[in-house]
Amino acid sequence: MALMSEPVVSLKDDTRKQLGAFLRARRESLDPQRLGLPRSGRRRTPGLRREEVALLADVGVTWYTWLEQGRDVNPSSTVMAAVAKALQCTPTETRHLFVLAGLPPGEAPQATGCEGISEGTRRLLDTLMPKPASIQKPNFDIVAWNDSFGHLMGVDFNAIPPEDRNCIYLFLTPSRMACAAWQA
């Protein structure tokens, strides 16, 4: 009686599969319209298409497909940071993504309250006080604000995770959801 042996799977192969599963789960969880992508016919899969992630991350479609399929590719920290940003990963998810990609988690970009905003732009927002002012991306994600804008919206933006700082989402969220001490 011959014993059947299971195929030997290296840790690296298993890690690549986990990376692919994580990327796919993140991709499928995103709403293309919320990211400002045009609606283009019927979608066969939920969330973003691989082509859209590749476009947002500024990487090749084939390369991203191979990464998601768990093939043996060696991404750089810069490329993985771009993929994490395209998939709107939280800082914790970005560190996890770096670990799965075999990169030091310390190389993952650190989140800041107003990332990508110059000091001059920051001063301009503060100069506009007491008038409310904010800087938003095309998909209405709020990337910078002054205190008056926070008061106008009734929100402490520093207490909200960056991925939840979206003007439309905040506007359409009922007030009782935004206030922890809401009395019915």
Automatic annotation (TrEMBL):
<protein>
    <submittedName>
        <fullName>Helix-turn-helix domain-containing protein</fullName>
    </submittedName>
</protein>
<dbReference type="Pfam" id="PF17765">
    <property type="entry name" value="MLTR_LBD"/>
</dbReference>
<feature type="domain" description="HTH cro/C1-type">
    <location>
        <begin position="22"/>
        <end position="94"/>
    </location>
</feature>
<dbReference type="InterPro" id="IPR010982">
    <property type="entry name" value="Lambda_DNA-bd_dom_sf"/>
</dbReference>
<dbReference type="InterPro" id="IPR041413">
    <property type="entry name" value="MLTR_LBD"/>
</dbReference>
<dbReference type="InterPro" id="IPR001387">
    <property type="entry name" value="Cro/C1-type_HTH"/>
</dbReference>
<dbReference type="GO" id="GO:0003677">
    <property type="term" value="F:DNA binding"/>
</dbReference>
<dbReference type="Pfam" id="PF13560">
    <property type="entry name" value="HTH_31"/>
</dbReference>
